[in-house]
């Protein structure tokens, strides 16, 4: 089955850290750019970050720049999102998505492109 599966969502205190994982099964993730998106209750989905197939190019939304780090391990067919200094406004369901072909990073997290694969999400709650 071709799919992306997110994991690592949890309850974390403000200022705390969490690492999310996005694992691909049934296909080789190293041909795809991968991004993280999130959707908070009552809000529209927003792009958080994306990474190129090789991992050389990363891009972040202003709201997470300096706090979140995206990375990938193509040998493990997995992309990560390290969340540091978490804030209550980071509370959301986090989704990963993969797209093959050329792209502009700003457009990627801006939702311009159709994705080839989406995961089902993992819940992150930032609260004391």
Give the overall silhouette: globular
Distance between the termini: 38 Å
SS content category: mainly beta
In helices, the fraction of residues equals under 10%
**On the 0-100 scale, what is the average pLDDT?**
96
| SSE order, one letter for each helix or strand | EEEEEEEEEHEE
Beta-strand percent range: over 45%
Number of strands: 11
Low-confidence stretches: none
Please tally the helical runs, counting DSSP H or I stretches of 4 or more residues: 1
Largest sheet: 7 strands, mixed
Oligomeric state of shown chains:
single chain
Work out the radius of gyration.
13 Å
How would the blueprint of this fold be written?
Layout: E1 3-7, E2 11-12, E3 18-25, E4 32-39, E5 46-51, E6 58-60, E7 68-73, E8 78-83, E9 92-100, H1 105-109, E10 117-118, E11 122-126
Parallel strand pairs: 2-11
Antiparallel strand pairs: 1-3, 3-8, 4-5, 4-9, 5-6, 7-8, 9-10, 9-11
Task: Describe the overall structure.
The protein has 128 residues and is mainly beta. Helices cover 4% and strands 47% of the residues. The chain is built from one helix and eleven strands, in the order βββββββββαββ. The chain has one helix spanning 105-109, and strands at residues 3-7, 11-12, 18-25, 32-39, 46-51, 58-60, 68-73, 78-83, 92-100, 117-118, 122-126. The strands form two sheets. Strands 2, 4, 5, 6, 9, 10 and 11 form a seven-stranded mixed β-sheet that branches. A four-stranded antiparallel β-sheet has the order 1-3-8-7, with no helix packed on it. A hairpin with a 6-residue loop joins strand 5 (46-51) and strand 6 (58-60). The protein starts with a strand and ends with a strand. The model has no long low-confidence stretch (mean pLDDT 96).
């Amino acid at each position: 089955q071709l799919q992306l599966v997110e994991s690592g969502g949890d309850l974390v205190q403000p200022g705390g850290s969490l690492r999310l994982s996005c694992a691909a099964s049934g296909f080789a993730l190293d041909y795809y750019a991968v991004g993280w998106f999130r959707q908070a209750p009552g809000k529209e989905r927003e792009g958080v970050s994306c990474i190129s197939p090789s991992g050389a190019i990363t891009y972040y939304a202003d709201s997470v720049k300096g706090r979140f780090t995206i990375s990938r391990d193509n040998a493990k067919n997995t992309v990560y999102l390290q969340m540091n200094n978490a804030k209550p406004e980071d509370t959301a369901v986090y989704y990963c998505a993969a797209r093959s072909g050329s792209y502009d990073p700003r457009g990627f997290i801006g939702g311009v492109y159709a994705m080839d694969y989406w995961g089902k999400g993992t819940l992150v709650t930032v609260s004391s």
